[in-house]
Amino acid sequence: MTIWYLDNEDEITDAVARLRQADDESVVFVVPPGSRIATGRINFKLLAREAASRDLAMAVASPDEQVRALAASAGVLSAATPDAAEAALERGDEPPRPEPAAEDEDRPAVVAGSAPPPERGALSWRSPRLRVVTLTMLVLVVVAGYVVTQMLPTAEITLVPRVSSLGPLEVPVRASADVSEVDVESGAIPAVSLSVPLFAEITHPSSGELVTDTKATGSVVFRSPSQDSEQEIGEGTRVRTPAEVEFRTTETVVLPRSVDGAAAEVVAPIEAVTGGEAGNVGAGRINQVPTLADQGISVSNPEATSGGRTDISPLVGSGDYDDAVENLENLLRGRLRAYVDDPANAPAGLTVFSETRVLGPVTLDPPPEDVVGTAAAEISLSGSAEALVMAVDESAVDEVTRARVLASIPAGLELLPETLEVGHEEGTADGTDVTFIGTASGQIVTVVDRDALLEQIAGLPISNARAILERLGTATVNVWPGFIGDLPDDLQRITLDVEEASTTE
Fold first, then answer.
1. Who's near 231: CB < 8 A, 6+ residues apart?
2. Taking a C-beta distance cutoff of 8 angstroms, is the pair 170, 439 a contact?
3. Looking at residue 266, which CATH number applies to its domain?
4. How many domains does the chain have?
5. 0.85 exceeded by pTM
6. Would you call the peptide bond into 481 cis, given omega within 30 degrees of 0 as the criterion?
7. Which of the chain's ends, N or C, has fewer CB atoms near its CB within 10 Å?
């Protein structure tokens, strides 16, 4: 069911044109009070005749009781509201029988100052000739209305497609050495692993001490007043001072037997049992020989012992070596950072991300086993290593961002290329990977299918066509003649100019 709302200014030709466009089997005309169509019963008769010729069930809805009465007198089903009229049609209510025409119906009224009634013998409304002439004129009016409304109308439409903003959008992009090529869908791009050879040398002071004790040496004389036979005094025999500074003989000697009552003597070399200056004792201080005293053998040192001392020298400890290694590695790291932070060392087209640098194993020379425990005032240590750092072609970030943005534009819209602005924030290192946030903004425009749009709006009421056009942009609709309420059915009579969209500030 089709419901047409008429304006007060709509003519009978407008209503007839709507009947000819109806796709449904029933039509309801909503006629407002004061409508031009409701000025005479003949208009409703014309509508009823047109509806009957097209096998359409028709009703009139109007809040004006006089309009409803006029329609009913013309044999048209009428109701106060569109719903009531629609219900009557659905029930199949019979339209009222048209009232017979009054004798003076449609005859011009005689008012003061008007011409007198025609004289006898002149044409009158009752005359068959006049009725034929009148009906002929009505037919001509209807035909003329059809020509005006269906064949002559033209329309000129100008449409400026709507432009709207896109973004700002954010696109995460990850650069990794594990990626071999740009992957737009996952937002991954390759990273280049750069190798940096490093070498450094340092010296580090020793903190340990090497204590060396030198033992005092000298000689003693063993004596026996009456020695009947030779007496062997073995190497290592202990002698000492009253203060118990001990010495030992360093070779075996033989004490001879006494001759002619003279005491027997023999000289033996000695060294202090412990090192250091304590072994330096004066002459005659060594006078005890515990293992031989019970045999009547005595001992003495004619001269002082000497040479006993304590020497202290630097010593390389394990902690010294560890500290030296730590300092060396710190030096290598510093040189690595200085290298990667220098833009001159970056390969062409790549950005080096210092935060991804990794120092590889350090080869040390000399190794710890050759140094630790040696007497030295300092350690001379060298080290070499292979370092790695990530570099990225940041243009790939923009490439992925641009592709992701283009892929996200909904159907029916397209990007204005000159408005697209693509960039990215500074990359953030995550281990050996680098994460970027790509940014994009621009403007998009509605895509207009001119042919499809013409097919859609042809023959529609101007208000309906305008609503469709304004969903696409800003539209200007001009029709000729100006009183026509619908666009022409013929596409050749509609000119549609789709202007180039202009960017917004």
1. 224, 254, 255, 264, 295, 297
2. yes
3. 2.40.30
4. 3
5. no
6. yes
7. C
